Amino acid sequence: KGKSTSNGFEFCGTWKEFFDLLWVSHEKANQDIANLKAFGEEALESMSRMGIGYREMRQYRKLPEDQKLALLEVAKTGDKDSFLDLAEEIIARHAKEKEALGQELEEAKAEKQATDQLLENKNKRIDQLERANQRIKTMPADEAAAALREEATKYLNETQGMVQGR
């Protein structure tokens, strides 16, 4: 920070500037650091010698810790075929688990939606009953009795229709 180039440009001292001077993108440097932290120097060098690329390493970093450790142990042996076989097996198993979790999530969402709908219907019915109750309380007794008789008759007719079949 504070240093100047020959053309008068002054450096701010940022991470990006540092790697620009090294002709390395800061994204690649960040990936290299993430790989080093995730795999360790020995395994990272072994994986590089086997020709494992950045895309694969990014996938391997996303794996659960126990599966990542199993990969690292095989990587340290330097046996590329064993490493690739294990990696494919782990990734396939991880994909199946992810798919199963996705299905569980969809089922949970559908169940929640159904529960929300039931709750909404229940609340609407409670509101209707509460309004009817308030209306009846404010009516004269003979009008309230007539309204209740009318509503009871309506439900009776609906029930008879369902029993007899429409």
Explain what this protein looks like in three dimensions.
With 166 residues, this protein is an all-alpha fold. It has seven helices and no strands. Helix 2 (26-39) packs across helix 3 (41-49), helix 2 crosses helix 4 (54-61) and helix 5 packs antiparallel against helix 6 (80-138). The chain is elongated and about 100 Å long. It starts with 14 loop residues before the first helix and ends with a helix. The model has no long low-confidence stretch (mean pLDDT 84).
Strand portion: under 5%
What's the SSE pattern? Answer: HHHHHHH
Q: Tell me the span between the first and last alpha carbons.
A: 86 Å
**Outline:** elongated
Secondary-structure-derived class? mainly alpha
State the major sheet: none
Task: Output the number of helix runs.
Answer: 7
Number of strands: 0
The chain-level mean pLDDT equals 84
Radius of gyration: 35 Å
- Low-confidence regions: none
State the helical fraction. Answer: over 70%
